Amino acid sequence: MILLEIKNRIIEETLKLRFEGAKAGNKAENVDVTFADFDGVLFHISNPNGDKSKLRLSASLKFYKELQEHGADELLKREYATYLCAVEQGYNISLEYDLEKIAAQPAEAVEEIISKAALIKRNCFSSVFEKYFNFQEKGELGQQRAVIHYRDDETMYVEAQHDRVTVIFSTVFKCADDIVIGKVFVQEFKEGRRGSTTAPQVLFSHRDPPMELQGTDARVGDNIGYITFGMVTLLAQNVWVETAHCMVVVVQFFSRDTLTSKPGRTPSI
Questions:
Q1: What is the spatial distance between Cα 64 and Cα 162, in angstroms, rounded to a whole number?
Q2: What is the pLDDT of residue 152?
Q3: pLDDT top residue among 243 and 175
Q4: Whole-number Å distance between alpha carbons of 102 and 48
Q5: Are 3 and 253 in contact (CB under 8 A)?
Q6: Is the pLDDT of residue 102 over 80?
């Protein structure tokens, strides 16, 4: 089984360490951590203006402007209203945490704060899926397809259809072995569908784009692959929203870094 992590482990562990220290009354220390994930999304955890009593988490996504077109700003305000702050230079979103206020909250609330922070990238992407599920639910078909260039040479397409929302990811394989591994990777999703009535249909296309992208400028070539998810929306809202969130995980991990991971290894971001 391929295990896909939803949360950013570095964010989760760093905030947990600092927040637990604040609750224990420990002296606050300087924090300055910069790191990136497989997609080149850059994160920075630091003390704003050198104030050790506060932590700032910033994220930079090269494709954030494309996400903004689909309601990313509004979704982040909904999820992080209390913690949104002036955006750090060079980043797209910043959250700020007052350690004294964090220390005063119950443990369960602190865990929720950490969990949400570790999902910051997923929540940026979620706006696209929520938008198109809403289109489908309301029968607002014919809307322009969402196109998100989530990597320099790879793209995500989202479209509302009469009975489903179709999500397509393009990927570039570096060698023939990657193509074989990619097919095995997709087979994991197909196997999962057998045990779940809510799992989306999964298709894999090699060389040529799927039917939904015929007539577009979608790339063609021996090293090009497309994975298509057809998500039926005749489900309870909370079920298809969570299904959409799973698509974000695919965005995070459908890369050569993951496909070539050694057996038994869980890729981290």
A1: 28
A2: 81
A3: 175
A4: 16
A5: no
A6: yes
